[in-house]
Design a protein that fits this description.
Blueprint: H1 4-7, H2 11-19, E1 21-22, E2 26-27, H3 38-50, H4 55-84
Antiparallel strand pairs: 1-2
Amino acid sequence: MAHPSDYLYARHSEEICESSIIMGGKTDLERVVAYVPAEWKEELEAWAEAEERSVSWLVSKLIDRALQERRPITQTVQQASEVASVP
């Protein structure tokens, strides 16, 4: 099994999120709510604690990574679609 730090990557991503924090603990980030099984929540809490981070921070990093991995695939599909539509 991968070490949690393998998933918590890219210092620049951390800096981007930290730069979104406004004085007084407010943030300009949007809120997303998700329902997960109790087992996932417990596992996420343990992982976040091991990393000395919040569950919110951890989930944000996981979403960021998933989106970064998805973008090249999406771009390739869009490019292929554009080439196919050229007469």
